[in-house]
Amino acid sequence: MRPPLPGSRPRSRSRGFTLIELLVALSIMAVMAAMAWQGVDAVVRSREITQAHMERLLRLQSVMSQWEIDLREVHDSQVVPGLNFDGATLRLTRRRPEGLQVVAWTLRGGTLWRWSSPAVTAMDALQEHWMRSYQLLGSEAGTLAMLHGVSQWQLYHYHQSSSSWSNAQSSGDLAGSAPAAEPATTPGRQDGQSPDGGGAGAGNSATPPVIVNQEALPDGVRLLLQFGEGGTAAGTLTRDIRLIHP
């Protein structure tokens, strides 16, 4: 073996990673990447759930605001009932700057719908819109889907005279006798016919009742909404509204 030359340095042997070391490093990086992805995915899912919950909450608040406005503007015209609930549909007459408007809230197919007629000032037009509320199919102009996933609903009335709540379908305080509502007539068709030439109840199994004794407007209305799976809310929603009589 030759001795090293004067002034020269011994060469060091460079050592790289082995295949096993590379595989271990790649495995560690893969585990860390999977953990990071799970964390990011959890954050995204949490944000989506929160956003969906906020949208449902805002929707529910908007619907309840419209419900409150409709009830606070109920008006007894003495021509048609100011407020009537038959178990499936709530019909009411609402005051508007342009006149009186018929509004119907109905539960159909797990969805709570709202229909509103144009505001009118003529008696026969108001009666015609009221009778039309018994023939709603869900595709009429002015119909909106308000809440989804509603399994059932119930209304209760409060009367100060009895200081108690009662089922809205039971008899309330009578406001006295009122003349029976007669369908509007126009030249060229017989009395009692609808604009399409049929009878007032043509094409509809539910015939509007003849108004003889109207019930006095209650002093309060309690709404109970029962939501099913996948509904806008969960459980039962209760909302009490005090009616303001002019």
Automatic annotation (TrEMBL):
Pfam families found in the cross-reference section: N_methyl (PF07963)
Stretch list, region Disordered: 167-210
PROSITE patterns the record matches: PROKAR_NTER_METHYL
Keywords assigned by UniProt, alphabetized: Cell inner membrane, Cell membrane, Membrane, Methylation, Transmembrane, Transmembrane helix
Subcellular location field: Cell inner membrane
Membrane topology annotation: Single-pass membrane protein
Top-level taxon of the source organism: Bacteria
Protein name per its UniProtKB record: General secretion pathway protein J
Species name: Sphaerotilus sulfidivorans
Taxonomic placement: Bacteria, Pseudomonadati, Pseudomonadota, Betaproteobacteria, Burkholderiales
